[in-house]
Design brief:
183 residues; 3 helices
Length: 183
Amino acid sequence: MTRRSFLTLACGVMALSACGFQLRGQQDYPFKRLAVVGSQPAFLGRLTRMVQGGSDTVIVSSTANADAILRVSESLGNSVLAMNSLGVVEEYSLSYSLNYTLVGADGTVLIPGSVIALNRAMTYSDEFSQSKSSEADLLYADMRSDAVDQLTRRLGVVHSLHPAPGQVVPAVAPRAPLPPPPL
């Protein structure tokens, strides 16, 4: 029985390694003290856990003590995605946008103004308006979490606090929004 479980475990490990699966691992940011300006508490909490848990960089509250400063702004939105024949909304498109810039303590732009834009579709019914409001809050929290994950990977692209002219990190624009689904 032990041999069979070991064989199953070994096959599982080989299958995962063959598909390219890799744990996130430790990030090596060139800045060791990062100040975050303009963020909401929920965003800052998640970012702090991700950065401090996956690297030797710490989040500081004062820009005077920071090696780099991350300026962020979030925006939430929703729009009608689908209506029935009576003109009653049946589906909403929720959107979340994170604008960010990373600058060094000396003012060197490390990541120019960039955007992470996410959207989710949510069905709607007036009958369940209170529960749909809670669902929208959960979807916004999920999009915020996804944005933080993308941002931490994006911060990993910076290799130096003083990049050479050819090593400047390009800005990232959001991808085009998803088209509405066919009716």
